[in-house]
Amino acid sequence: MKFELDTSGLDKLKKDLDKQIKNAERLNGEHEVSFDELFPDSFMQEYTNFENIDSFEDKSKFN
């Protein structure tokens, strides 16, 4: 009895997994993001009553 196994997709799978590992390693550690990047004007206008993060911060009681 002869048994054959198709492994043609394993190389692509390994390549994809290696890429995901590299991407995950890049995320490791500390990263800095400014408030302007985190809360762009478009986000603030759609989800708050403020034009931008600066006007939101000006009106906050933590100012």
Any key phrases for this structure?
63 residues; elongated; mainly alpha; 4 helices
Q: Which radius of gyration do the C-alpha atoms yield? A: 24 Å
What is the global morphology?
A: elongated
Largest sheet: none
Low-confidence region ranges = none
- Judged by helices, strands and strand pairing, the structural class is mainly alpha
Cα-to-Cα separation, first versus last residue: 78 Å
State the helicity in percent bands: 55-70%
* Element order: H for helix, E for strand: HHHH
Average pLDDT, rounded to a whole number, is 90
Oligomer: single chain
How many DSSP helices? 4
Instruction: Tell me how many strands there are.
Output: 0
Beta-strand fraction estimate: under 5%
